[in-house]
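From the shared-data thread, chain only:
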Amino acid sequence: MKHTSKIIAATLCAGVIALIPVLSGCSSQAYVTSIAKSGTDGNKDIYTVYYSDGTTSEFTVTNGSDGVTASELYEQYLAETGEDITYSEFLEKYLTFNGDNTASVINYCLLSSLKIYSEFVETSYSIGFGGIAASSDVSVYTGAAVIYRIDEDPDGYTYLVTNYHVVYDDKADASLNGGTKVAREMYGYLYGSEGEPVASGRGDDGYTDYTYGDYGIELEYVGGSVENDLAVLRVKTADIKEVNENIVAADIADGYYVGETAIAIGNPEGNGLSVTKGVISTENEQITLNIDGTLRSYRSLRIDTPLYSGNSGGGLFNAEGKLIGITNAGNSSDQNINYAVPLEIVTGTVDNIIYYALDNDSSTNGAYTVDFGMDLSSSGSKYVYDSSTGYGKVTENVNVTSVISESIAANAGIASGDVIRGIIINGEESEVVRTFNLDDIALTLRAGDTVTFIVERGGETVTTSPYSITSSDLVALA
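Structure, as tokens:
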């Protein structure tokens, strides 16, 4: 399926929106009460910041006839304070907005969104009077992607995340497609600088050639995992910024919950980047997909956000403009039942792929996990509501039913009958309240990491022996 973050770029109209923090040039006791347009200087608008102690300061914004935007204020804030803070953190910490700011959030998130085109050589067969005839040519499929990381070094790359099935075609003729079923060429278009492939005759190989115009950005495949339906692409940062120097990497959420706003940005029906909105319906559901000829089960977020063919690979964002998943599938019989790869799988897989692409070891590529070497079952599953946050979550007992000898679990001292309550990685503890938590954590482990388990055994809490992950513990994901 072809599928599809949220940060606010709201317009701050003169004197309407109050700010909580100190921007600069005033004491720590003063705070901003309002911002008002106070004049013009050529093509620049002058804005006055009014502080609670009666003092003021000014800044200018080019082409700001409709008011200063929150993103411009954010850039001004960074320039004045040097604080290391993301855009969404700045909005949450410093700005108070009235009403629904969905539109302004979406507008900012468009800076991290692309539509993708992938080329594959496919062979078709027909039966005629002379027997079976084979014909091969290039097919082009479309989807979407999200900017995940931007390396600003002179020779640095910008990394994108999309679905594996956006850049993989099981119908591709590998022998004619460069020895692989991964796209032989991939191009992306940023929002506002869009185009589409145009057939331009035949190439030297006899297949249809496509041109992508001035806005087409050629992308390189870094690695992927069909098991998690995720792939990483990249382009030189300088090259993508030639098209739009304002691109941003998506902010990553800390988590998600049922009922949370779920905004999808994708390329439905190949008609260009567009937006749909809904909520998270279920935070954990197993679905079955066939991407490469093998049926696999995928843990997914179920959403009622409308998705269409072409949305695949696009970002799913929450109400703060933070990435919570990558949309990848839908229910053909019910438009209100659609799916996305959950955040933990996205970050674990993508960070994994980028890590091994940059480790200067040609023998490691793609994504890796570890097998702890124990069989698990769950019991006591229940929904727990936290009145202090207003949100809840499902918890369960993660029971060890058996341990494989000489495995990570065995070497750490885990025994059959233990209930796993937590895991400590390099001194940092994470709670384990679902069996899939361990799968998510396994994606983050690298050779040299130290792992310790916290288990309940015989009514007591026990901390196991530490175990150091070795390269031989790493298992490549398909």
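Residues 368-476 form a domain with the Pdz3 Domain fold (CATH 2.30.42.10).
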